Fold this protein.
Amino acid sequence: MTIYNVYIFDREGQCLFYDEWFRTKQSGLSKIQEYKLVFGMMLSMKSFSERLATADSNQTVNFYKTSTYKMTFLESATGIKILINTDPNANGIRELLHKIYQAWTETANSAARLISSETEPDESFLKSRVKQIVTKHPCYV
Amino acid sequence: MSSKTKQNLADSKKMSAELFCLTYGAMVTEMLKDYEDPKDVTIQLDKMGFNMGSRLADDFLAKNANVPRCVDTRQIADVLCRNAIPCYLGVNATVTNWSNGDRDFSIILESNPLTELVQVPPHLISAGLSYSQLIAGAIRGALEAVHFKVFASAVPESSNSNTEIRIRFDQVLKDSIPAGEDD
């Protein structure tokens, strides 16, 4: 099993973080274009599924799956969206996404960053944190 | 749940409550000198609280995975009192004074860590200083981050040590879809 790549978006659709591990084939789009399309697809899936929902309740889109990969979504109540591509049979991905969310909040809200008032969270630090979390997951490799 | 929040409190980086309380007091004093009008100080404290709250929201959600998505004000009040306030202020809180068809409610803090060593002069209170507005602002900021627009204000300290924070629910905010993606 494999974990391919991860995207983190903010509320406005800005890609805050991207990393990949076993992605052997690229989409052939520029990175910016790819982020836009991924985010747009997620928004559309959300609104479309809301429209089709059979009951009026708070529902969430959890993932979509093809024969070769599965894209799992996590949207926090604050609007942070984390998307991850994995092997279609991977499990425990929601927990993994939550751990990534935790790592992101800790990095983005760290005191050092708030004081230095940089807009971008410490990219390399977050990268190593996320990598650590992902490589520990049983579905990695 | 409560034992879990206590754990969170224990392993997070801590600073002495007294030192914090004194630092906060010194800051408010300095602001009173800078702004002259106590009302402006209240506004600034509210803003500071708002910025803190909007960041705390993510932190809170990351730490408490099993808090459900709130659908009404009763639930919001419940999560605030049972999870959020004990986690970040280290005190217990209760909800009372429901009015206006569940749109308004008050949160009573069992004790207020900000005013532990402080006596706010009565003439400043009557001039519009709300010493604990920081907490109210933080609640407003945190709820706005999860798409609930509320108005929150700290009711001026009465004789007992409880601090009342009055919250009025305004509306649920909608996520805007980014414009200009058609290229």
